[in-house]
Amino acid sequence: MNSEINIRITGEAGQGIVAAGMMLCRMYKDSGRHVFAIQDYMSRIRGGTNFFQVRAAAGPVYAPREKADIVIALDKEAVEANMAALAPGGLLVLDAEKFGIKGLKEGWLDAPVYALAQETGGPIYANSVALGIIAALTCESFDDAGRAVDREFSAKGGEVAAKNRQAARKGYEHAAKNMKDCAFRLAGAPHKSDLLLAGNEALALGAISAGCKFYSAYPMSPSTGIMNTVADYAARYGIIVEQAEDEIAAVNMAVGASFAGVRAMTSSSGGGFALMCEGLSLAAMTETPLVIAVVMRPGPATGFPTRTAQEDLEFALHAGHGEFARAVYTPGSPEECFLAAKRAFNTAERFQVPALILSDQHLAESLINIEFPDASAEPPDRGRIFIPGSGPEPDRYAYSADGVSARAFPGKPGPLAVADSDEHGPEGHITESAEVRTRMTQKRLHLKLAGLAKETLPPTVVNPGAATMLCGFGSTLGVMRETCAAAKDAGFIHFSQVWPFPAEAALAALKGAGRVLTVENNASGQLARLMLRETGLKPAGSILRYDGRPFTLEWVSAALEKEAPVWR
Amino acid sequence: MEIKDFHSADPVAWCPGCGNFGIQAALKTALAKLGKEPRDLLLVSGIGQAAKMPHYIKANFFNGLHGRSLPAAAAAKIADRELTVIVTTGDGDCYGEGGNHFIHNIRRNVDLTVIVHDNQIYGLTKGQASPTSEPGLKTKIQPGGVILAPFPPLETALALGCGFVARGYAAEREHLSELILAGIKHKGFSLIDVFQPCVSFNKLNTYEWYAKRVYKVGTEHDVADKAAAMALAAQRERLPLGVIYCKAKPSYEELSGLDGMQPLVDANLDNIDIGPALADFR
């Protein structure tokens, strides 16, 4: 019995790699295993070489492994591109006749995937045949694979599902008969973590749960998944999703809708978020609540559209001209994405500031099984809104001790609603007054920041003061968690909110630590710089990865074994 | 409602003699005739001299970024479809900086009334060419005269299928107020391009210049005739004023289903049951 297994299904875009991966995830999850799956794909709709990799285990798993125990290749190029990813003792399943491969290398196993697919109806069924083969190698019966097929294809009609089930069955029977010597049996037990969720989906569901009623965005990988999920549920939850003509429109629409009184949100990735910066500044100046999800990918410019990075931490902290308070959330898991979305709406409305949620492709599109989240956490809190009859009507931007003044909405009882991107007095009209300018800046920056700082989410800390303390934000939570559980005398601190920065909590967790290292998907150690600036504590080094790929367990542990981790 | 109900105490910062005063008067007259309270009106603008208008009329207002009045206005209307939303913008704001939004909001067809103060010059930045400047107009940045072909707002709007296209003149206040009122009553994106003399920077398109060229479109013009509208909009020697084109077409609110929903702003955010959506991810 193995405690875990890592499976990679690979082929070109258009071969149903994602469908096969989703079926694998559900097959294992529903049979009592935990799963963590990554998607690695090129910026193209057809061709190339993509893979979907599922790590299935008897216990919870939070991060990817580099090497696969089983690789199943759906085209010849995928064999070439993925043979190096095979773990020692692993199995590479391929269709030698179809690919024209003669002379199998060690660990390679021939299976007539395409002949079996053809028997079912054509090469389109190859992915389901592959699923069946893997089920035979790793599962006790065909049942879980069969259910996973039905779940994946039921929306496409009974006939499509039946054909795919038939294809999976053929793969299963072939492997059960011819490959039984190669079986990897996987331990597992029923568990309650039965949702299969990626960060983008969790973020969207959190936003819907928070009462987001207007969502404007322009499609951009890897942020589009959020808009897709909100759009899926728009009719059911009374939400308008508007595809804007550009990101500038998207952010200005979100600000306009929020001004009118609805919870509104936009999202993008690096380049699109760059276009939103003036709108971000507008939200701050007009004190209009705004939630923006920024799902990072490698830049500069177009960069790697479908890959991952954490290069825009400093950008998110400083985006927008002028000085103003903001909150920046950096969730590390789908659970945290769900909560971050709800919290971001509350923060945005209570402090009347922009609240950013910084994610990345790895978090956005990696799937993990989680428990049903507590939907009652972070109930909507709309902050200060003028209640008619509660007293004299206040000026919209009236000075206050905490920098927050009551909002009014157009068309609703109470004072007229006003907003100006120019410097303005308490009543909202344009001013050139030096005194007003000073007080308004203090309102928007100093006072609000002080209030936000009191509510910064505490970081997750494991083994505080350990000999080695890893520090990360966002998507590195999982890899740090597993690395530290396995390593000797190692702990970590993970920031799920980086602004305002929780300096005291960070210093407390790092007190007495031997060496402090940040783990970052960027080339310059942006978190290390932020920590130094905010705490005075200089990390000894940074474990950096900036090739567009997520950290794997192997990558981090190899870096930890070095004397002094280098700035790669 | 009376004109004085829309009086704002904010001091006006336009130059004496500015065409904007005529537009302000026409807008107030139209609002008085419309009969809605300031509370139910939202004026949205970007940046420029025209964009100051919302400060000078009593109503809700959102004075946002240069060029970005239309997205903010469209979204505010989507958020609360019961509001009457009027955009006061200029030729630089709407046709230059915000050109992409002009194109796509005509396509979007949210119920907005868009008044473009078209003075064919940049006023707030002190006299550079605008998208509608006449070729040959000399400015500090175009000392040899403008060489770019002017942007044709009416023809562009017609080509994009805009359901209400009109042109007014700041000096024809009564006529302009009728155009504005008709624009507000038209459901969908209504464009009113308004000739507005700039007394400080545009020494070419003066009150005298306009007086020689403008004329009011007569009742013989069929406003539902797109070809006739296009012909009128293409006139360059004499400049027609009035409703150039008007034809009902389905608005965003109808097509998106908004009209059948309670206004988004009135949605109850307590007790949203996310459970069924989460369960789809089992």
Question: What would you say this structure looks like, in words?
Answer:
The complex is a heterodimer of chains A (568) and B (282). By secondary structure, chain A is α/β, with parallel strands linked by helices. Chain A is 39% helix and 21% strand. Chain A folds into three domains: 179 residues, Pyruvate-ferredoxin oxidoreductase, PFOR, domain III (Pyruvate-ferredoxin Oxidoreductase, domain 3), CATH 3.40.920; 175 residues, Thiamin diphosphate (ThDP)-binding fold, Pyr/PP domains (Rossmann fold, 3-Layer(aba) Sandwich); 102 residues, Rossmann fold (3-Layer(aba) Sandwich), CATH 3.40.50.920. Chain A is built from 20 helices and 21 strands. In chain A, the strands form three sheets. In chain A, strands 6-5-4-1-3-2-14-7 form an eight-stranded mixed sheet, with helices on both faces. Chain A has a seven-stranded mixed sheet with strand order 9-8-10-11-13-12-19, with helices on both faces. In chain A, strands 16-18-17-20-21 form a five-stranded mixed sheet, with helices on both faces. Chain A starts with a strand and ends in a 7-residue tail after the last helix. The model of chain A has no long low-confidence stretch (mean pLDDT 96). Chain B has one domain: Thiamin diphosphate (ThDP)-binding fold, Pyr/PP domains (Rossmann fold). Chain B is built from ten helices and eight strands. The longest helix of chain B has 15 residues. The mean pLDDT of chain B is 97. Chains A and B meet through strand 7, helix 8, strand 8, helix 9 and helix 10 of A and strand 1, strand 2, helix 2, helix 4 and helix 10 of B. Strand 15 of chain A pairs parallel with strand 2 of chain B, so a sheet runs across the interface.
